[in-house]
Amino acid sequence: MAIPLINSVVSWFLKKRIHDMELFMKHPQELQNNLLMDMIRFARHTEVGKKYGFADMKSYRDFADRVPLGNYNDVQDDIERCKNGENNILWPTPIKWFA
C-alpha cells in the first residue's frame, strides 16, 4: 500500500521539477534576472547594498553600472569580518560556509 503512495508523491515532484526546468530553458534570461533582483532586494540593507544603492536598483543594467568588477582581494576584509561573526556586511543573514 505504501509503494503506490510513494510513487505518486515522487511522480508529482518529478513532474513539477521537470516543468520548472522546462520554464528555465524557455526563459533563462528572465528567470536569472528575477533571481538577481530578488537577491538585490534581500541584500539592500547590508553594507554592500547601501554602498552600491541596491534599494533603488530596478534592473541588471543598474547592477552592472554600479557594482564594479572585482576579485577576492577586493572583498577579503569584508569576508574576514563575516568569518569573525559580523552580520549584514555582504549578506543579511549569517554566512555558514566559506569557500
- Main structural class: mainly alpha
* Radius of gyration over C-alpha positions, nearest whole angstrom: 19 Å
Order of helices and strands: HHHHH
Helix content: 55-70%
Proportion of beta-strand residues: under 5%
> Runs with pLDDT <50, length 5+?
none
Distance between the termini: 45 Å
Q: Mind summarizing the main beta sheet? A: none
Global shape: extended
Quickly count the helices. 5
Per DSSP E runs of 2 or more residues, the count of β-strands stands at 0
Average pLDDT, all residues: 92
Task: Tell me what the structure shows.
The model has no long low-confidence stretch (mean pLDDT 92). The longest helix has 25 residues, at 2-26. The chain has five helices and no strands. It is mainly alpha-helical and 99 residues long. The protein is extended, with a radius of gyration of 19 Å. It has a domain at 2-70. The protein has helices at 2-26, 28-42, 47-52, 60-66, 72-83. This is Putative auxin-regulated protein. Pfam families: GH3.
Task: Give the gist of this structure.
It contains 5 helices and no strands.
Task: Give structural attributes.
99 residues, 0% strand, Putative auxin-regulated protein
Secondary structure topology:
Blueprint: H1 2-26, H2 28-42, H3 47-52, H4 60-66, H5 72-83
